[in-house]
TrEMBL record:
Biased composition (Basic residues): 679-688
Listed Polar residues bias regions: 656-674
Region (Disordered): 651-701
Matches recorded under InterPro entries: Coact_PPARg (IPR026784), PIN-like_dom_sf (IPR029060)
Protein name: Constitutive coactivator of peroxisome proliferator-activated receptor gamma
GO cellular component labels: nucleus
Family indicated by similarity: Belongs to the constitutive coactivator of PPAR-gamma family.
Amino acid sequence: MAHELADDLFTQLNMGVRGLQYFMETCCPDTCVPVDLKHMALNHVKAHPDSAATIVVDGMACLRYWYRCRAWVHGGQWQEYMHILQEFIDAFTAAGIRLVFFFDGTVEEQKRAEWVKRRLRVNQDIARIFQHIKTYGQQPNSRDLFCIPSGLATFSMFALKSLGQETRCSVREGDYEISDYALSHNCLGILGQDTDFVIYNTVPYLSISKLNLNRMTTVLFSRERLCQVLKLHMTDLPLLSCLLGNDIVPEQQMQHLRNSALASYRKRNKQVQGDKVYAVAEFITVHHPRSEETFGVSSLLLAEAEEEALEKGIRTYLLPGQTSPWLKCSRPFPESVRSMDKYVPGEILQAAMEKHTRAECFLIYNVLYDGVVECSNSLEDEDEVELPPQAVLYLPVRERIYGLLLPVLPDCSGHTVSVKEWFVFPGNPLKEPTRVTPKPLNYTKESPDLMALWFRTDPEVKTVQASTLLDVFDLFEFTEELKQFDSPLIAVICLVTYIAIQARQLSLEDIDAYLSQAVCVRFKSFTEMQQLRTPVVDPRAVQLGSLFVRGLTYLIGANSACGFPFPMDELMPWKTFDGLLFHSKYLQAHSGCPKEELLEGKPSWMSLFLSIRELVLGACRRRGTPVHSRPRRLQYRDVRPVEVDDLCGERRPQLHHTTQQESRQQPAASTHYQQGYRPRPRHPKRGRYQLAPSLWSKAKF
């Protein structure tokens, strides 16, 4: 079932050349070759005895294949996810195959329009997910409604490193770096789900969606066979991609050419499935440069803007040393401009790039090199009027991180440096980036010396690094108090305190849910986590879970900027958070269950919980944001039964909203995001949920 689900999801999300995946699978199945990875590895080692059989893995394309946990809406089942990753690695190791993982480290501006289009489409899916939760009180059990947990790509990168795998983060287009690395290192293949890997003249492209981990088999999409079928040369494939449409050349830009080619093709051939691809291939063959007078895309007799678009698109596929008959000059694609060079010492830039490419840091490379940062979709309810989007909530943290890395004062000419943010959240149309100005820390009198934070190794610098990180979260006062706790608990205390102060609408029950979860998760085994169930899914708890996990990404970003005062692995969600566990604690806390029950009757757990709880609540009181008890109760009525929780497979009555109104104080959004963030007013019929106390007598965790 898991493989079928993954297959269906990948069918919807195929990346790369428009229509090519369908064409190869449906119209030319001979181009899709079933392969046994063990046999491939053995043959590779025989042919190349001095090198290991290595597969380069496109990590971004594998996220949905890897995240097979049944619960996904609650914030992530991180221990289970780590177990899945280990099984994946073990299967390849047993087959004699070494893996090298690549993750996208940047979004190139030439692909920005496509990135925006996809992010806005996912926003619509997320809105449907929340509507489903509000209607049925359950996680969607549909192949059309699925969203990976927030931050999964970032955390997967660090997870694989912690499991001993070679992991890399790209500094330019990820597909390009993967293809280049695989070719230059004589790798066995590329494992991913992007037809661009058919176009690149590199090693074989293997499908992650067709991977059977038990049998170690998959499908190889053969560019050689595709060329035979279409009667093209390998060097023609980049032009084919651009004429069909890809992430660089929009599909509609070459629509007129495809229509003309298709009309011409159908005059001589009967209409068949996939004839658009056949027609474009024939067009390429007919117009292939054959003389010195006609060369490059000029032989296609297109408008100047179209020629430029095609040349730009073709050039992106050329690996070092490769040429194309469709280009007047096969020069390499220009490197990205380093716009922040003049503000940062060369040693810092070099260290940032090295740590970035080795997947050892987060966020700082993007800030220091081109000053552009992006954040993809989070599970956020567009109708939520109390909790601000994560982009707004964590803006002060990002401003202070930028202030650590870049100048906070104008230069001699009066110019103030800023970082361009492309952050996805409900209400942001993503028409242009938001410019965010670096801000100084609140408590540190002088801006910390970045060279000292990054390169000093004496014991005293650790204290400075840690206090600087706390100052980034405006929690400098915790510097001494937190020394008694380990890194995972410090991470939780920081984030929960920060969320409570910034959002200003967290209740005592929310705090108890966050903190009891953080204590309990430390002592639960992977087997115990697998037994967790919740009787209902609450939309507010979903957003709170997502808000915490997204906060962990900013915490590791701050840790990177401050010189790593804490081990990165200690700040990861598998050490601090479990979605189902948090959800169950949230429902328990808001049902009024005793603290002893929240901490599962363990005195030592209760003692730890009470100590960190007092720290958090004390900090909130000192900041003028005391936290009060405001239980949110859930109520059921006997109506048409529905499948409420696909995790349990039980049938429960349908959830409905009460009509009780409550005025809500709206947290003030920073002026940077006021244009984008417009919380919707509460519908007059939309009230709070209420949970009948008798429900909890039946609930099992």
